[in-house]
Amino acid sequence: MFDGLKDKLSGFRKDVEENAEVEEPAEQDETEAAESAAAESAEADQPTESEAETVEASDAGGASDGAAGGDAADDADGADAADDNEPSTFQRAKAFATGRIIIEEEDLEQPLWDLEMALLESDVEMSVAERILDTVREKMLGESRKQVETTGELVESALHDALLDVIAVGQFDFEERIAAADKPVTVVFTGVNGVGKTTSIAKLSEWLADRGYSSVMANGDTYRAGANEQIQEHADRLDRELISHDQGGDPAAVIYDGVEYAEAHDIDVVLGDTAGRLHTSDDLMAQLEKIDRVVDPDMTLFVDEAVAGQDAVNRAKEFNDAAEIDGAILTKADADSSGGAAISVAYVTGKPILFLGTGQGYDDLTLFEPEELVESLLGEE
Ligand SMILES: Nc1nc2c(ncn2[C@@H]2O[C@H](COP(=O)(O)OP(=O)(O)OP(=O)(O)O)[C@@H](O)[C@H]2O)c(=O)[nH]1
C-alpha cells in the first residue's frame, strides 16, 4: 500500500542528507573547532576550498566578513552570507563551534523541488503539496540542531509533521461518534458508481457487528438496474435486513423506511446506499439534497477509490459542495501505490478519511489512523 509514495519520501530524505553533508562538523570537538577557526582566520590569505567553511568563522567577536574568507566561501559553495534569509557567518561559526548545524535554503532548494515533483507525480493535490513543502521548509530552514541529531532524523521529523498536518484534518473517532449518537444512527453513502460503495456498506455493517452494533441496509440507489440484487446479495451473505423499493422509486423514501424499520426493531445503525449516477450530475446532487432534507442523516460518508488519485480528490470536493459530507472512505487502498488521494482528501474537503478499504473481503476495512499512516509512509520496511 502506497509503496511508490514511500519510495519518493525516502528519496527526499537521501537528497537532503547528501546536500547537507558538507555542513556536518568534522570529528573535531568543540574546542578544536573553535581553535581551528581562530587559527585559520589568522592565516586567511590563501584558504583552500575545503577550509572555506571553517574560515568563515573568522571572528567570534562579530566582525563577520573577513574579506578573503568570505569570498572564498562564496566561491566554494555559492553561498551568499549577506543574504537576509540565511544564517549569518557569525551564527554559523557559533553553531559550528557548539556542535550545532544550520540547514540553509540552498541545501533544500533542489530536494524540495524534487519533493514537489514527486508529490505531484503521486497525485497529491497541488495545494496539499504546497502546504507540505511550506511546512517542511519552515521546520528545517535555519534550524539548528544538536550534533547527535542526524540530518536524516531532522528531515524525518519535518516530513512527519508536514504530512500529519494535511492528513489529520478534521479527524474524529468514528466509533465514539456512533456510540454517543441517539439510535438509530443514519449513515448515508455517496459517491460515483463502481468505486466500491455497496461493498463498503456491507463491510461497515460487519465492522459495526464486530463492535456490538446491529445495522439494517437501505438501498437508495433506485436508478440503476440490478442495484437491488447487488446489495441483496451482500445482505443475504451477512444475514442483514435490506429495505428496498422498486427501480425508479424515491430514494429518500427508501432510506426513511429504513429508519422506521430500525426504530421498530431496535436496530442501532441504518446504512443508506445512494445512486452514483443519474441523468445529469445536477439531478444527482438534487437527489442527495432531498435525502438530506427528508432523512436528515447523522452522517454522510463519501466513498471513492484510492486508485483514482486526483479524480477521487476532485469528486470528494464536488460531492462535499453538493451534500456536505462528514467523512470519506477510500477503497482499493490495497491496490494503490501513489497514496495521493489518501494524503489529499482531508485537506481539500476539510473532512477526514475514516476508513480505508483494503481488499474484497468483508473484513478488509481498516480504521484510518493518520499517525499510523504517516509512520508507515516514513518507515523503513
Ligand atoms: N481490491 C479491492 N477491491 C474492492 C474494494 N472495495 C470494493 N472492491 C471491489 O470493487 C468492485 C466494485 O465494488 P461495488 O461495491 O460493486 O461498487 P459500487 O460503488 O457499489 O458500485 P455501484 O453499485 O455500481 O455503485 C467490486 O468488485 C468489489 O469487490 C477494496 O477495498 N479493495
Structural description of this entry:
- The protein has 381 residues and is of the alpha/beta class.
- It folds into two domains: 26-98, no CATH class; 174-369, Rossmann fold.
- Helices cover 52% and strands 12% of the residues.
- The protein has 16 helices and ten strands.
- An eight-stranded mixed β-sheet has the order 5-4-6-3-7-8-9-10, sandwiched between helices. It has a two-stranded antiparallel sheet with strand order 1-2.
- Helix 1 (3-20) packs across helix 8 (151-167) and helix 14 runs parallel beside helix 15 (340-349).
- The relative contact order is 0.13.
- The model is unreliable at 22-30 and 43-83 (pLDDT under 50).
- Bound molecules: guanosine-5'-triphosphate.
- The site of guanosine-5'-triphosphate has 19 residues, from helix 10 and helix 11.
- It is found in: Cell membrane; Cytoplasm.
- GO terms for molecular function: GTP binding; GTPase activity; signal recognition particle binding.
- Its EC number is 3.6.5.4.
- It is a peripheral membrane protein.
